[in-house]
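Contributing: when you submit paired examples, paste them exactly as shown. First protein:
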Amino acid sequence: MKDLSFTRYVFLVSPLLIFLFSCNTTKHLKGDEAFLVKNKIQFNKKQTAKIKNKSQLEDQLGGLYKQRPNKKFLGVPRQYFYYTSMDTVGKSKIGKGFSNFQRKKLGEEPAIYREELTKLTAESMRFFLQNKGYLKAQVEHFTNYKKKSKKAEVTYKISPNGLYTFDTIYFASKDKEVENILLETRNSSFLKKAEPVSAEAYDKEVQRISNYLRNHGYAYFYPQYVKNLVALDSSNYKIKAKLEVLIAPGDTINPVYTVGDIFIYPFFDPSLPNATRPDTVVDGRYFATGGRPFNIKPKTLLNAISFKKDDLFSQEKVKLTDRQLRSLGVFRIVSIKFEEDPIKNGVLNFDIFLTTNKKWEFGTDFDVNTTERKGVVGNRNLIGFSVSPSIRSRNLFKGAELFVANIDLGIELAPLADTILNTLDFKITTELFYPRFVDYFNVWKGMNKLGLVSNRYYNNLTNHATSHFSVSYNLLTLLNFYKFNIADFSFGYDVKTSSKSRYIVNNFGFDFLFPQTRPAFDTILAQNPFLDSSFTKQLFTGFLLRDFTYIYTPPGKRAGQSWYFETNFEISGLELWAANSLSNAISGNSKTFDFFGVDFSQFFKLELDLRHYWKLGPKRTFITRLSSGIAVPFGFTNSVPYVKQFFVGGPQSIRGWTARGLGPGSFVDAFLQDRSNRNLFFQAADFKVEFNLEYRFHMFRPFGLFNLNGAFFVDGGNIWSLGFIQDDRPGATISWKRKKDELGKIINDNFFKEFAVSAGFGARLDFTYVIVRLDLGTPVKNNFPDPKRNNSYWVDYSKWRLRDIVFNLGLGYPF
């Protein structure tokens, strides 16, 4: 054994140690007791082909186990630590010392096989399958009891015996008005033909009917008024069923209600026994002010109330009113109550109680974060430390306006690099949020009248959008390289058009960028005209549309799948370019507008981000992501500003390279070959394509303190120059064909070949409120050909070293 390495020694000895530990714990068992060591699900082989989503169904059934085997810690069954803690000090003396830690953190209560729990598990599985539509499902259980080792393995044999589906659903009610509603809305039913006869579908249908009726006047309709399905025929595994809606007890029909008087209490104090009596009427609504001046404009409150007198009662409008009043940010407590009018039948009177919040709030935040900023300073992926004092004023002008002022003082680090300190950042921001849509110069109203904007979208804007103004100044310094001064003003709105879609629009924006470069960077710019042309003073402007973001998040599907889609469109200088062109056409000259010698930047930029999530089990997820972007100059501008170009690499991108360290195209920067420059990457270009694949899984929970999760990932992509001006970086311009120089060396290749690929493993420490992430990535396929290996793009692993691993430290998930 002396010639064995330590690793081989551990490998050989570990199974023996586990065996010894297991034997040591069996002495605590009595009589025929045995440890449960395995649960297994086995589907009837003759029926396997007819089972839909078999792997997902198996995971769901596995979640029904009433008893599970003990887990292991470093290969040792956890019951060993449980028993050892008692052996050390005695069962009655376990206190707060190491024995208690060993029992509660390292150990687990022994999983001693129980026949009754096995039977309960089988019954639960059978009920679960029946609720999924396998109405004649059978579940048998078999126990393999090993007497010598005192171990028990349980196998659950699943025989679904055919899936029942809906054929025809008949809706009925003795209340003819309700029956008509059921027939009119049957196309929205969750009990669809050819779909499984599941408890989930029935529950959704009951909720659908209840919600519809409660939103159309039936204020006191409850789900229990919907009877269970009655099967009329079940031949050939197809169900014809009747669904009946009952009448409320004591009534001949289900009563319909309208809205009566609305009473608003803007100074409500829940600690006082009685609320102030109403004393002021505004637009037919009663306010109880107690003689005090309004602390918030009545119009602001009335705009947030979605129902009015004589409307049909709608539970959704009541919920919407509650959300809108809370979203004003002025009230600490919002309570809406209604009761039947004592005189008028079918009328509900409403009381709205509002308790105000503190107007002023001061705070200071200390933040540790990973940064991927999108804005006038471009995108950055670094670890940041910042302190941010802030002041907030609620209801600044008595219209529920929220004023926020922040100062951010921070540094950003490039972890594990030779020069750790990377960026110094100072930013001051003031923002004013309005709880309503502000249409300056009636732009949107005019477009609606011209038919350029639909009535539905315009009504959604005026009723649900919130507006915001923002003014900020940012001083950003990349040490020894360059400094950005950025002043920004913007105005826009945010509107959620549905539960799955949201728009964020900045109508007006004005940004001034003033870069200052250091001698070390001037040397680089002198050798790169493309980069030099994008490092100039710039004004970014938008007077009708500055930028537009659309986010779409549809609800997840039954199979655990979900989508996320985001697109961002940004444009600068369109209106000024049009005015400049018109002026030149009239005057006959070719002047270019500027602002005290500073050029107006003219470009548009489009970004797309699509993600798909597969839930493979309770603690396993597979994610795919496709991201792309293009930035194009127009008008009198021949290049896109550097801060608006794209880059790849880093914690949220291609993790085998550091941020801005990859590309463009097949270009390799000699400057980066010096390891002292590894945190000073600056490569960017006009076009980006990127993809990510990631498999996430749970590993274990060390000492019960946090969840340790793992991930395997594959990332790929690149950036390219589109050639609007000459790019002197060899191989940087996008191309469809391979190009060689006079010596036969490849200087440009088909851009598909220039896709770089990296792979790696990541660990995530999940502390519930914060996730610390470490991803280790390494290149698999380079973005440039190797002439020494027949122009292969694939990495030569015979020369691979640990230094080729890129460490990406971050907070939260990358996507």
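Second protein:
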Amino acid sequence: MADECDISEIVTTFFLNTCRLPPGPSVHSVQAAIWVGLLATKHPPDDTEVDCIPLTTGSVAEFYIEPMIDYAGDIDVMYYLCSQLAIPRGHPPPSQLPAEFHNYVKVAEIIDSHLPGYVYLDFRYLLTQCIEDGKYNYFENDKKLYLGNRMSTDVDKNIHIHGPAVFTDNSDVSILLSIDTVYCVRCLSWPPQAADWPTRHRNYGWPDSATLDRVVSNGCDVVGVAHRQCKQHEWMGKHQFRLSFSRAEIVLINSWMPVQQIAYHILRFYVKTEQLTESADNSELAIMSNYHIKTLMLWACELKPRSWWTGNLNLVRICVELLKTLFVWLTDTRCPHYFINNCNLLNSSFNVRISVASKLMSIDEEYLSTWLMNNYIGQCAQLCPFYISRLFDDVSTSVKLQKAVSEIVRWRLNTSLYDMWQAVTFAELYISVNMSLFFLNVRSSVYSMNELAKIDKRFCVYFSAFALLHAADKISRKRFDDDSMDILATILGHNSNQCCSVLSLCKIELNTELVELLQKSAVEHLTTYRQLLARDFDFIVTIITTDFEAMYAYKRGDYQQCLQLSTQNVHTLLYAVDMPSVLLPEFTQLMDDDIASLTALTVITKPECRKLDYYSAIITQLTLSLYLMTQCQLKLSHLVTSLAHTLDYIEVVQRRHSREHTLDQLTLKLLECKVRRTIVH
């Protein structure tokens, strides 16, 4: 293999060119956005009026780079109740609160424990909001009443308690990450325990004053979990909380330079792959976690000058020096908390500490360069086509190694648009399935739309369209309620002419007219969404923009208009790469009973189609357009010669779909039978 200098340069170039900046929409960010929306609908078991306020934290929120190897092990979501608030001890209760808080709020003082960073919450005040001016009055509680650190939760086969988190296992769907949901209590003030952090002297200007102000203004959270030394204690184990700076960490890590985020990713990958975050025989608690690596990086970003990161840039050198710092910390049993003075994140009782330190002691640039080439870049090669991965069979010279790595980089750059397209098609499916299966209300709609807008504004257009179809479907089934009306007002805009028309129809209960109005509005949104997709992705897939217009024309009985649109679409798609469309009840309302029956049959006979990594209940735009074209020809009594041409189209499309595409195959078989029967007669 090439010499040490060559390898470290190749590794550095590889990471700089394959970690996308900025990434497009990702599967994980979409999953997190929808989960936040669903969590916003939850209530504590004993209070149906109190809402949860969720926040995506952890890797999905912190990283803006998109490496070839996934950086996220799961999705972390914190949530607090709008009826609870924590304040520093001795602070007066607030008279004003942000709008998300309830009109009555329990306020607890943060009381230090004997362990730095761990506290108790003493319920001291009850705030009640005054209707006249919106300000809060308080009533003092004279009795000592400490909040418990656990919220009761409904437990099913996919939900487990994992430290302070409720762990939702999604491993049965390969594309989804599992989710850690953590209960906390919101503190709007920066805690006195970290009072020195904003003002301490910094030689190199990071974080800058604007970032410092933003971090401090976000306050902190108090997470319901006891220190490991106290977990078994009868009282402390149930009442101890930990100060959480997740909001601060998101702001700080997002302010890093790309090279700093990449170094963070490399370090996390190394310690995970080498199992340094696990005990040697699983009999001990792990000596390290990702939080130790995060702390290492936060300190390095503050204590190192910008030139250390960017001058003669070498990612391997940077990571080796950081691992040496980690070695010193382990040797000295000292990992200083980044925010709290006199708080050590390492414990001398861990027997594996010296063992892990010894692994780090011998790491140099030659070792880490080779390790990354074999374990990281080699793994990336397996993601590429075979002609690229086999280049690594012989990398005995610098030239051969450089060529092999360059081919990965080239493939990565060339597939950027395709990967973004994959994330978009996933987003469509995930949004549709979750909105169809789970209860939708105003809070979930607002939270989901806000989170989706941060990822890609197109998703908000799609979300709005699906919400309108969802409402239309509920009305047609006589299930329209006040929540549905509120959702429509939110989606359409309270003051829009369209919203006024909808709400007027709601009041006089003209269900047929209301359904038609909602369907028309949804089709307009979907057509706009298709046009936005076609603008950006027509290079890799043929996207027709009038498929929903054709469906709506068919629904209205305008078969001539539907035939014109669908025939054009069939001609466009017949020999092109087309996109799938999900057919949930919200969409089948635009079709006829035959399609609805076939969709239901697919779900009944193949339950796995409900999972997001199967495509059995999805139909392609081509099959759907061919269905509409054929049905319109039959209804308009077209000549046998026209139907014969259509039969040829059907046979061409049948050959394109594998047996796994159940709904496509069933639809095409139905069309074939109908056309043959008509031709014979």
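If you have annotations for the second protein, write them as plain sentences, like these:
Residues 40-255 form one domain.
Confidence is low (pLDDT under 50) at residues 152-157, 279-284, 612-616.
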